[in-house]
């Protein structure tokens, strides 16, 4: 099972629930793996707007109905 014992943000919990890999999201979104790791583990991290848009575009390939507010408080 994914994500046992790790601190996870809303994005991290979603990735774990879907059984996805952080590195795959990083490649699809064309952002660094470190950025995705931080976005998945740090509940207080809010990526820059351009990074957020790239991540959301990649996320919507899996679930087209998700919004930025599903992952980050704005």
UniProtKB/TrEMBL annotation:
Highest taxon, organism lineage: Bacteria
Pfam families: HTH_3
InterPro entries found in the cross-reference section: Cro/C1-type_HTH, Lambda_DNA-bd_dom_sf
Residues in HTH cro/C1-type domain copies: 15-63
Protein name: Helix-turn-helix domain-containing protein
Lineage: Bacteria, Bacillati, Bacillota, Bacilli, Bacillales
């Amino acid at each position: 099972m994914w994500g046992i014992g790790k601190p996870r943000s809303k994005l991290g919990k979603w990735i774990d629930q879907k059984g996805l890999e952080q590195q795959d999201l990083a490649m699809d979104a064309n952002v660094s793996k470190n950025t995705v790791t931080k976005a998945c583990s740090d509940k207080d991290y809010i990526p820059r707007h351009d990074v957020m848009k790239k991540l959301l575009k990649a996320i919507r390939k899996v679930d087209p109905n998700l919004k930025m507010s599903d992952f980050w408080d704005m």
